[in-house]
Amino acid sequence: MVLHVVAVGRMSDLGLRAACADYADRVRRVWGLELHEVRSPAGRFPSAERTRREGERLLAALPPGVVAVALTPTGRSETSEAFARRLAEWQAQGRSVAFVLGGADGLDAQVIQRCELTLSLSPLTFPHELARLILLEQLYRAATILRGTPYHRGR
């Protein structure tokens, strides 16, 4: 199974970038992982127009045939264990998965409509760079849950 993280913007915070690289390396020990960064449109645009343009770029970056998962604060909440089980199901089906993260203003409706599932990392709002780190950590946590290695300390 190949996991794809399709996100708006580059990681500018050096600390977050290093942490993302660390978790990405950990995930790659278990699954294939590809990071796809799309640029936010240059220039000043109203929020809705910027989000629409970002959405077009995100959709263009989605690899064909993947299960597309939108990450939004209003998506479905799952425990880490349930998330791990979901990944195991997709792996058993031979599916690859793309997790889609929007920019500072979130995801355009066209992206959410294209996705098969909408998940929430939290009902709280995070900067998009931090959301990317949380996603990568949860992917690693899911891998450790499925392998039974002592990282996750859930119930």
Which characteristics define this entry?
155 residues, alpha/beta, five-stranded parallel β-sheet, 45% helix, globular
Q: How is this structure best summarized?
A:
With 155 residues, the chain is α/β, with parallel strands linked by helices. It has helices at residues 14-28, 47-61, 80-92, 109-114, 128-147; strands spanning 2-8, 32-38, 67-76, 97-101, 117-119. It contains five helices and five strands.
Structural commentary:
With 155 residues, the chain is of the alpha/beta class. The chain has a single domain (2-41, 48-147), classed as 3-Layer(aba) Sandwich (Alpha/beta knot). It has five helices and five strands, in the order E-H-E-H-E-H-E-H-E-H. The chain has helices at 14-28, 47-61, 80-92, 109-114, 128-147; strands at residues 2-8, 32-38, 67-76, 97-101, 117-119. The chain has a five-stranded parallel sheet. Strand 1 (2-8), helix 1 (14-28) and strand 2 form a beta-alpha-beta unit. Helix 1 (14-28) runs parallel beside helix 5 and helix 3 (80-92) crosses helix 5. The longest helix has 20 residues, at 128-147. The protein is globular. The two termini are 27 Å apart. The mean pLDDT is 95.
